[in-house]
């Protein structure tokens, strides 16, 4: 289920429960307010589960992957502590934040992606044009890429190659996820300059929001750490949950456990230590979250700028190579003509 729809549902359900509406009626009304037809059957199944005596968290579990794992975990905590409406309100804010960050990311990468597509199409058009010129003049087509791609067939091969690369990338991504190698892949990405900093910034922001929410809801520290690391959206961060939990359960401070992973920056850990000394870690992270959001946006801007620079540098190099190749051909023709004199 899309997070923006889940956020609306959480907020509506929270408001209704705060107003004293019974859970079954609240589920029915919240399902209608969600504004998505897919919520109709889901709502009916949730109501049926609750009517049989199950709690809302159990009903959500029965839906499988329809709802985020964090929602299921926190609803369970909310039911146990008696503050389900407050938990749902916090979740709505968290999911709204995730949607906003996702939109920011998509908006930022749209222009570089369009630039990349434009560059690929420009090369294809150039291959076709040079092939047509060769046919008109009766000369051999200029191989702009130096790999034997000329004329219409060359342009088709060029575009097909990129299409196959995209398909291979998608298949590879699916295999990484299904084989449980997301953590290893994300660890590799974190080592790449600019890219790694951007991904780490987003992960820190999401982790901070989630940890503050789960702790304020009364969730136990172990499940809170696991859920928050998973909510970071980064496989490398999520994979550290057993290590961090083991250290915390053995009596280590949370800041020391986070430091042992090597993924959390020094200034972040210092703020955690300040919160530990005053017993206000969730509040500290909640105050830090907006700053982390800004850092994530700045990192994303740097990444997109670097991506754009790489794209246009590649195009510029291609144009320079083309100029030299054309010049060398004409120079060869001139030399040949001079020899015939």
From TrEMBL:
- What's a GO cellular component annotated to this UniProt protein? plasma membrane
Where is the Type II secretion system protein GspF domain positioned along the sequence?
9-130, 211-324
InterPro entries named in the record: GspF/PilC, T2SS_GspF_dom, T2SS_GspF_sf
One family name in Pfam for this protein: T2SSF
Q: Does the keyword Transmembrane apply?
A: yes
User: Which UniProt keywords are given for this protein, alphabetically ordered?
Assistant: Cell inner membrane, Cell membrane, Membrane, Transmembrane, Transmembrane helix
Q: What is the similarity comment for this entry?
A: Belongs to the GSP F family.
What's this protein's name? Answer: Type II secretion system protein F
Q: Which organism is it from?
A: Planctopirus ephydatiae
**What is the phylogenetic placement of the source species in the record?**
Bacteria, Pseudomonadati, Planctomycetota, Planctomycetia, Planctomycetales
Name of the coding gene: epsF_6
